[in-house]
Amino acid sequence: MEVLKTNFYGNPNLGLYGFATDKYCLIGRGLSEEIIEEIEQVLGVKVYEITVNHSRLIGSYCCGNNKLILVPSIIKEGEEEELKKLKIPYKKIKSKFCALGNNIILRDDVALINPEFEKNIEEELKEFKLKRMNIGDHNAIGSCIIANKNGCLVSVNVTEEELKEISKTLGLKAEIGSVNRGSPYVKAGLIANSKGYLMGDSTTGVEGMRIEMALG
Q1: pLDDT digits (tens, 9 = 90+) for 161-174
Q2: Residue range of the domain that includes 178
Q3: According to the model, what pLDDT value does residue 177 have?
Q4: pLDDT, tens digit, for every residue of 22-60?
Q5: What percent of the chain lies above the pLDDT cut of 70?
């Protein structure tokens, strides 16, 4: 797999600013042409610069799979038009948990979600089999897992029972790890698809090996 160790806007938590599928990568505006070209080479997909709610925190606000992305209802009309122009299928989700990327892990037909989501999420995501769960004592499950078709990396705070449940539900091998010198919020430090991944430049060599075991 291709790998790039970098930061966005001087911040190693690059997963806050973007996320990728095997078809495209969505990134907040403001990166240099050089880094965008590097991202495209590593992930093997086109990079599109967008905003959500006038913010470049795309990885926090959005999540998705190869067929669909979920965006919060606070997205602006012009931002929706941009997604339509890019021909990216999307679904708006109304919830107090508007940082969907921090609270949902979406696979082809299943989703792990924050257990405190409102009841209406079951109707809004009725095409997915939903499982509500914590990781350790943390409910923002989307910030604690990153997955591609090869496997998933899970926060060091996960219990053995939770790790088994995550692997079973997602149908993926699951490895425990951290990013950026011990951060358990692995989604915040990584952007990945099945072709490659980007990791924060504070990530240590040992952490990098665990990431490769999980996603490679």
Answers
A1: 999 999 999 999 99
A2: 2-215
A3: 98
A4: 999 999 999 999 999 999 999 999 999 999 999 999 999
A5: 100
List, as one string, the DSSP characters of the chain: -EEEEE-BTTBS-GGGSEEE-SSEEEEES---HHHHHHHHHHH-SEEEEE-BTTBS-HHHH-EE-SS-EEEETT--HHHHHHHHHTT--EEEE--S---HHHHEEE-SSEEEE-TT--TTHHHHTTTSEEEE--BTTB--GGGSEEEETTEEEEETT--HHHHHHHHHHHTS-EEEE-BTTTBS-GGGGEEE-SSEEEEETT--HHHHHHHHHHH-
CA 186/CA 179 separation, integer angstroms: 6
CATH number of the domain within which 45 lies: 3.75.10.10
* Domains in the chain, number: 1
pTM above the 0.90 mark? yes
